[in-house]
Design goal:
The chain has helices spanning about 10-30, 35-65, 70-100, 105-140, 145-170, 175-190, 195-210, 285-295, 330-350, and strands at about 215-220, 225-230, 235-240, 245-250, 265-275, 305-315, 320-325. The chain is an alpha+beta fold. Strand 3 (about 235-240) and strand 4 form a beta hairpin. The chain starts with 7 loop residues before the first helix and ends in a 23-residue tail after the last helix. Helix content is about 55%, strand content about 15%. The longest helix is centred in the first third of the chain and has 36 residues, at about 105-140.
Length: about 375
Amino acid sequence: MAESDLVPTERTNLNATAIEQWPMQFWHWLTDPDVLMVFLVVFGTMTANVLCRRGIDRAMQRARRSRTVWDDALLHAIRQPLGLLIWVLGLSWAAEMVAAQGDSSFGQLVEPLRYIAVVAVLAMFLYRFVEETEGGFIANGADVTTANAIGKLLRISVIITAVLSVLQTLGVSVSGVMAFGGIGGIAVGFAAKDLLANFFGGLMIYLDRPFVVGDWIKSPDREIEGTVEHIGWRLTLIRTFDRRPLYVPNSIFANIAVENPSRMQNRRIYETFGVRYDDASRVKGIVDDVRTLLASHADIDPERTLIVNLNEFGDSSLNFFIYTFTRTTNWVEFHAIKEKVLLQVLAIIESHGAQCAFPTSTVHLLPASAPTEP
């Protein structure tokens, strides 16, 4: 007899009986050893995750007191991946227990899925560890360009290794992929020669190091001048002095001359002064005093070339020049020192009773001749 054939009173009695039996059925389900075991595995996974997080947080507080980069990088990198790894292992264990109750097809998926998840978590940890280590070394004063280059190579290696491992787990032939990559690389090389040229151009920048991040560079061949902010695998970002970003393909640097003023050892002062011809007798003393001034000047490098000489009879002046180098290479400090030196040279000229010349012309008038008689 179907339930629809029951009278309303009998149907009500059946519903009441089911409601009364539901707590007992739930209790039997809850006390089932398999269900209880799955619950304990999930609860244990959650507990292990919380304990690991607290342990890592305490270890990070202690690691901040040390001066090494490795412990900070390791703890920052492992915190999230370790929690994910605990959940992956715990949930996969629980899934195997559930699959053991009857669903064999589901059980066959657990093992490869767990392997893929573990590989992904390990790749995540290694990627973050390289990233944190790179940042730590840069913060401690390491060369930014070298740290970025090594970090990029290591991260790419981690990603490629993880992808190949996953493909092998999924049944894809890794040797076939490598062979296809060798054949396809020829076609890709022809199709993306500019991209490859920029890639190898960036690699040459990392190896030859004509400039690094933070250097001021300029090119006499192109209108390129500014501070290097980032060196990528395809482009180099240069911030011009009017604060505009300039993106230069790396292949350009293989064909142009690049000047790196940031690596200069000194800055040069090369100026010419003109004294009036009326002060010709004072020029010798002026030149000697200026030479003595520069030779003992605190801001002038005595190990570099120092020249102070009269060198030209100008149209309206006797010209002498100074050729010397400052100790500093800072642009702002250099101009302050140069201003100080120029004012001191003017003071020496005035102390000798002479004056700086300016363009003048002298007109000699002949006396008027007496008128002749007719």
